[in-house]
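Chain A, query sequence.
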Amino acid sequence: MKIVILAYDNDNHTAPLKWALEEAGYKVACWPGLGWTEQQQASITFDGSTRLRLGPHTVDEGDVVWIRRPNLPIHNPKVAEPDKQFAEGEYRWFSWSVLYLLGTLPVRCINPYSASRFINSKSVQLLLAKSAGMNVPETLMSNSPEAVRQFLRQRGGRNICKAFFPHIWQKGSGGIAVTETFELNADQLPADEVLTYAPAIYQQMVVKNFDVRMVLLGTTVYSYSLHNPRGAIDWRQDCGQGLVEVRSIDTPPEVEKAVLAFAKKAGISFGSLDFAIDADGRWWFLEINEEGQFLWLDEFNDKVNVQQKFLAFLTSPEGASREVIEQRQSLFPSWKDFCASPKKEEIPPENNTSAPFISVEP
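Chain A, predicted structure.
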């Protein structure tokens, strides 16, 4: 068995986990996604059996494949200008052929590409969370000015607005702006035309006592409370400045049961979930990122050992219990061990890596 990770080997999560796996004696193969260079080429062969090669690596029966963060397909830049659209389409369709195929091979796939695309839909997340028994804030997703105004007028109370996905704007002067959740009421809405510039998520504001980042590992979950001194609506910016305190907390049994039911409906076994906890102790589901960052939890609290738990989960048989994960986690070096190793200096700094899109402005 080898561990196949779909990401660049210097990705800020791939690199420490690859190092820790190899230190524990596992063979690791990294493939960054489809491209025209030899390292990024792929081949699927059907000749009585189905064989898949990713760059220099084969995907073999019994392997574990973690679809961490594959790069978007890259065609050869020397393609003639009239042919670029054709080449882009062929690379895109072949990339999908590779990624979707992984979910049908005799390997353990975390998470199957079909499930990851499905659960990345914000509307699907809220629907499944509610059907699994979780508390979900009243929500509108829209680019219709009339619908937005009606939702905020009828709801009253406190509401927020947030983007579907993180985005960073970089200016030539070195300044940056990042999407951030903010409070909004009907009187603060801009002109109708502005509301059509980009769709957004408008949602009942949960007045939080604190936030929770939960990590789903197969049949169990681990929850961590997040406390920041400003009590910000969006804790991510404070987190980037090192202003968030991370504590391990118990997950209420009814919440864990609902999350596991949610994961089963979604077809996933791994992900990072965000909850808001109100003054009455109610847990409100906000979202899940099945590729979500999690090693920062170890950086803020080196006693939680999320790196070791994840690797124990990754290398255990499917459906491994909490007891198995916690018994096996000591087989792997910790995040603290990685930080003390020379390998740490080779990894580029983590810089708003939750944002998949970046705009550069003059």
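The longest strand covers residues 208-217. The chain is about 30% helix and 25% strand.
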